[in-house]
Amino acid sequence: MIIERLRAGWVELRRYPSALMGLGIIAGLLMLALYTVIAIPYPQALEAWRGGEAWRMHPVNAEPLWLDRLKGGDAPSTLIIEHDAEEVEETMFTGGRRLRIPLAFDFGYADFPGEMNLFLRAEDHAEAPFARLSWLTPDGRDISLGGHRLQPRHRVSISQDRELTRRLGGLAPHIGLFADPASDAVPEVLPGRYRLVLDVVVFDEQADIDATLVVYGRVHGIAGTDHQRRELSLALMWGTPVALAFGLIAAVGTTLTTLVIAAMGVWYRGWVDALIQRLTEVNMILPLLPILVMVGTLYSTSIWLMLGVVVVLGIFSAGIKTYRAMLLPIREAPYIEAARAYGASDMRIVLRYMIPRILPVLIPTFVTLIPTFVFLEASLAVLGLGDPVLPTWGKVLNDAQTQSALYNGYTYWVVAPALLLMLTGLGFAMLGFAMDRVFNPRLRNL
Amino acid sequence: MIDSATSAGRRVPLLEVDDLHTWFELRQWGFRRVGTVHAVDGVSLALAHGEAVAFVGESGCGKSSLARTLLGLHRPTQGEVRFDGQALAGLGKADMKAYRAKVGYVQQDPFGALPPFLDVRRILAEPLIVHGVTDRTERERRIRAVLEEVRLGPVDEVLGKFPHMLSGGQQQRVVIARALVLEPVMIIADEPVSMLDASVRVEILDLLRRIQSERELTLVFITHDLSTVRHYAERIFVMYAGRVVESAPVDELLDHPQHPYTLALLSALSDPDADNALRLREVPGGEPPSLIHPPSGCRFHPRCPQAMAGLCDRDEPIEFTPRPGHVSACWLYQ
């Protein structure tokens, strides 16, 4: 039985270290894919990858934390300082209240933060409150950050304050506010406890103010963030199941259909075979990538449509010729004639007697075929034909390219997805080549 | 349905072949007809229940094509094969399948005849599965019984083996077991021993003969070896260029050959006699005739030492009966 053959193959396969390593890599990727699908459900991942407000607390283009520490850096992580209701000093006056909200934090990193934003919420106020911001440094300086009439959802982009930049001697606020006045040419961080104090005049008896200061870091998580503040780890993780599913479905789809069609042609011969061969020859000269680009441009870049086109164009592929060449001598084998003589149906002969004969030779080809489809999907995404909503490795590369990641020094943005793609290719190739040695009789005794 | 029980006994022939022609068209570019191979070209005969017959002839005389036509693997171009009085050509799909269960096939190359990726149990189960024996224990019982019958043991060990683990003789026993597992009434054996070691040939031939007599099977041997035929067949048909040129009971034909071609075949037999070592034999020269352009008249006439100009090269010989029970298609017996 074919099962026994495979079992014997497995025993032999275990002797190849490359097969075990390949299997290890594939198992790792599968586990990551499984974990991702369970931990971050599909709709949630799509929603998050769409970007926007949900990511406002994340830094832009932050390096992975471990990478910075590995390089010996001490870049800050993001600090989020929520206001503490207990520390709010409140004084009443006719027609309103006066609130003094301190937002204090310790800053001890050697490097400056990347950006600063203050998020204020002043909902249900009859009249817009007024806030005056002042910045207290550890060495006792008091720098005014100006006054703001607060919208219900108010955002003070401290880093964007041109006037403040001018007052700080040309330094961007997120640098100037943290700089040691003693340092001259190159600003250095003054470590210690910083405070942002909000003096708010509220024209309401009840309504409250909610303040959150975000001191954005320069490093974030294990994979960093992109230009839209999105965590790259989300796309890298979700890219795994998408890549594996795409590769596997495309490989299974094309291999099985190709195999069955080739076997049909060989079995029925005559015009069936001729038709299949001519279709294959026409299809073989059709260029896959330009057709995919065309479909992507004219219809949609949905990954399912792309998958469908890849499989459909893969049906009458060069594989038909190979399988036909392998099946032709099998068709004439005496055991096939014996099967006809005891009354086996055409279907049974094709599916049970002819195809199993070449299946062992086919499995290694099939395994090495998977990463080519993974790469194809990534290439499409890099060309801008990736699924518009799905986070994938190719999309990350595409974003990195459009944002000139390498020019700007964001190597991690390119390296991480490229590494995952290479790992996938390596895993399947190592397993596939070892399987080829085991299952392909012509390579057996080499 | 074909029901052999209704025609039990020897009076009604089991298999009748009537003016059978099996031609193959040679095509160029897949459609242009460039010639026709007359593999079987006008064969008529009748086989009785439980009869063992042999078809003898050199390579390319059409005996294997005849076997395949009888098995329903080739569609006859002309003429018909009747089994139990029913023409094969007129059978529907289900009846044809039933016919296939009634006729077993033993091939020449035992290793090629067994699917290399299936074990013996599965190989023998396949025909049963195809013919709707769904009960696993029933299948197992029949497989074991048939393995006992072909003397292939120990059964438990053999069942799990793959063809390449068996010797040639054992493989041929599996092939015979597969032909028998559907309990056929007729076995067609196409050169069943020609690819086996000389040491096991006799065993396999004895096995076939024993099974044939025990099961009262009709046995059709296809062979090119006249030396063993006497012990395993009751009647011999000598074939030449797609036709039967001579037929007779085995002893009659071997002791009193009539047709010049049969004489030539017999004289070519190796005879383990020391006197023969230095004696030159008279063997007719020439090659087997082309089946695409068969010779006119008697097909043997270009090689025949007794060919009569103006007759043999022009008119096809009809069947003569030079001795009782002995049919020979040769103008010599006009």
Describe this structure in words.
The complex is a heterodimer of chains A (446) and B (334). Chain A contains 15 helices and 9 strands. With 446 residues, chain A is an alpha+beta fold. In chain A, a hairpin with a 5-residue loop joins strand 5 and strand 6 (142-149). In chain A, helix 2 (17-39) crosses helix 15 (411-439), helix 7 runs parallel beside helix 10 and helix 11 (319-331) packs antiparallel against helix 13. Chain A starts with a helix and ends in a 7-residue tail after the last helix. Chain B has 334 residues and is an alpha/beta fold. Chain B has 2 domains: 13-240, 3-Layer(aba) Sandwich (Rossmann fold); 263-271 and 282-333, no CATH class. Chain B has helices at residues 63-70, 93-102, 120-130, 136-149, 155-159, 168-180, 198-215, 226-232, 250-255, 260-267, and strands spanning 15-28, 32-47, 52-56, 78-83, 86-87, 103-106, 186-190, 218-223, 235-240, 243-249, 320-323, 326-328. In chain B, strand 1 and strand 2 form a beta hairpin. The chains are: A alpha+beta (446), B alpha/beta (334). The interface between A and B is medium-sized, with 22 and 30 residues. Chain A: InterPro entries: MetI-like, MetI-like_sf.
Task: Describe how the helices and strands are arranged.
The complex is a heterodimer of chains A (446) and B (334).
Chain A: H1 2-13, H2 17-39, H3 42-49, H4 65-70, E1 79-82, E2 89-93, E3 96-107, E4 115-121, E5 130-136, E6 142-149, E7 153-156, H5 162-167, H6 173-176, E8 192-202, E9 210-216, H7 232-268, H8 270-284, H9 288-298, H10 303-315, H11 319-331, H12 334-341, H13 346-385, H14 393-402, H15 411-439
Chain B: E1 15-28, E2 32-47, E3 52-56, H1 63-70, E4 78-83, E5 86-87, H2 93-102, E6 103-106, H3 120-130, H4 136-149, H5 155-159, H6 168-180, E7 186-190, H7 198-215, E8 218-223, H8 226-232, E9 235-240, E10 243-249, H9 250-255, H10 260-267, E11 320-323, E12 326-328
Parallel strand pairs in B: 3-8, 3-9, 6-7, 7-8
Antiparallel strand pairs in B: 1-2, 1-4, 4-5, 9-10, 10-12, 11-12
